[in-house]
Design a protein that fits this description.
Blueprint: E1 3-8, H1 14-25, H2 36-45, E2 53-59, E3 62-72, E4 82-85, E5 97-98, H3 103-116, E6 123-130, H4 134-146, E7 150-161, H5 167-174, H6 177-191, E8 196-200, H7 207-219, H8 222-226, H9 234-249, E9 253-260, E10 263-273, E11 276-284, H10 293-306, E12 313-315, E13 331-341, H11 346-369
Parallel strand pairs: 4-6, 11-12
Antiparallel strand pairs: 1-2, 2-3, 3-4, 3-5, 6-13, 7-12, 7-13, 8-9, 9-10, 10-11
Helix pairs in contact: 2-9, 3-4, 7-9
Length: about 375
């Protein structure tokens, strides 16, 4: 097989994005954040000039691997620079896009490119991977074959929805009776205020309005007060609108709202990829917090997802031990970080080996101090 690797500019053109779309359709592991709609929007609005490099692997003319890479100035508390798969502050999964059937070849090619890159310091820090996913399995196999060090440095579980049950059966089986009773009470109290309805975005001409309502709703709450809402930063808001538009056109946007007398009181944005989906952002009217509108729209989301044959699972993308979603979804996904050695020649090889050894030693010392060794 004719194997080659190609560095790519951070502002890809139409032809390159078409190759990404072809790769995304045949990806071994779903990742909506690296699908061309979301990744393209992120590169256009969040990449910050030349801060992101695209590592692509080809077999002949066929794109078999894609990983956006940035340089981190620190590795944890260590002042050691490293290469890392780029996960901007609105990306919650970092598995590179690998073509099905070419997983190990793609990893071998991308690692070879990083080995040879003068701009790639010390080692590769991979974040946001599924411990049981195709990326982790292929990476482990390649590193074992090449005698390349690969160490897991962090792991946590987050909520996942994956069940063949209907929404009603899932709700009855996995949510405590006391909580179900309380939510039914809140639904009745909210209905006393007016007409309550939930719906999913279906019309392209409504998209801009829905995006505007979401941005305003999110900014009206605690995220707005802390300056972390999307609308607080023009680049973040532009990314959100662009990603939603591109995903809608690609059939990957899953946008829900809960209305009270026609006014949105909660909204939820999910992005689909292949047979799964990733929950992206939620916003709700905090003035109606006593009715738990965030929980109510998640209940609506459960009905929509379990009633959609095209969605087999949904990743919550939530923090570990999230008090709300963990009480609603019973399944879990293990998210891991790896530190992977980079090779090289001469002084570069020595520097990379020394940095990897130092980082490994600090980890061992930390485990000893915690009594985990």
């Amino acid at each position: 097989m004719d194997m080659s690797v190609h560095p790519s500019p951070p502002s890809p053109g139409t032809g390159q994005r078409a190759r990404w779309a072809d790769l995304a359709r045949d990806a071994a592991e779903a990742n909506a954040f690296y699908a061309p709609d979301m990744l393209g929007a992120a590169l256009d609005h969040l990449a910050g000039g030349g801060a992101v490099r695209l590592v692509e692997a080809y077999a002949g003319e066929t794109l078999i691997g894609l990983m956006p890479v940035s340089i981190a100035g620190h590795h944890g508390r260590l002042p050691i620079a490293c290469a890392t798969n780029w996960m901007h502050h609105h990306a919650f999964f970092g598995a590179p896009m690998l073509r099905r059937g070419h997983e190990q070849a793609a990893w071998a090619a991308m690692l070879a490119q990083l080995d040879a890159a003068s701009w790639a310091p010390h080692f590769l820090h991979l974040t946001g991977l599924d411990a049981a996913g195709a990326n982790a399995a292929a990476l482990e196999a390649v590193c074992a074959t090449q005698g390349r060090a690969r160490h897991e440095i962090h792991r946590y579980d987050r909520a996942l929805l994956r069940s063949d049950l209907s929404a009603d059966d899932y709700w009855e089986s996995h949510v405590r009776a006391k909580k179900r009773k309380e939510i039914r009470r809140l639904q009745k109290r909210l209905a006393d205020l007016g007409a309550v309805a939930d719906r999913k975005l279906a019309a392209r001409d409504e998209l801009s309005g829905w995006c505007g309502e979401f941005l305003a709703l999110e900014r009206s709450g605690w995220k707005g007060r802390e300056g972390t809402a999307l609308a607080c930063n023009p680049a973040d808001a532009a990314f959100f609108r662009a990603a939603c538009a591109a995903a809608f056109d690609a059939g990957r946007l899953h946008f829900l709202r809960l209305d009270l007398d026609g006014r949105a009181i909660a909204m939820l944005v999910n992005f689909r990829h292949q047979g799964g989906a990733f929950s992206f952002k939620i916003a709700f009217d905090e003035d109606l917090g006593r009715f738990s509108p965030g929980v109510l729209i998640e209940l609506a989301n459960l009905r929509h997802v379990q009633g959609d044959d095209g969605i087999g699972w949904m990743d919550s993308c939530a923090a570990p031990d999230h008090p709300m979603i963990d009480s609603l979804w019973a399944e879990r996904r293990s998210i891991v970080q790896y530190r992977v050695a980079l090779k090289g020649a001469g002084l570069t090889r020595l520097k990379r080996h020394a940095a990897m050894t130092l980082a490994d030693g600090v980890d061992r010392l930390a485990r000893l101090m915690k009594g985990q060794a």
